[in-house]
Design brief:
It is built from two helices and no strands. The chain is mainly alpha-helical. Helix 1 (3-28) runs antiparallel to helix 2 (33-58). It has helices at residues 3-28, 33-58. The protein starts with a helix and ends with a helix.
Length: 60
Amino acid sequence: MNNCFLEIFLLNCINEKKKNLIKLAENNGITSYSTVTCSQELDRLLNEYSKLQNYNKINR
């Protein structure tokens, strides 16, 4: 997958995960299993996006 497309894909996933996280936190509380799991998934996506950004900086 092209880095540009991967970046757009990751940003879309991050935005959707953020929306989901907010809903889960509102409905279940911030310490519920589902909220914490979603938060961890968001962290993984953010880490992947950060890695991609660093890779793009190095390989310009």
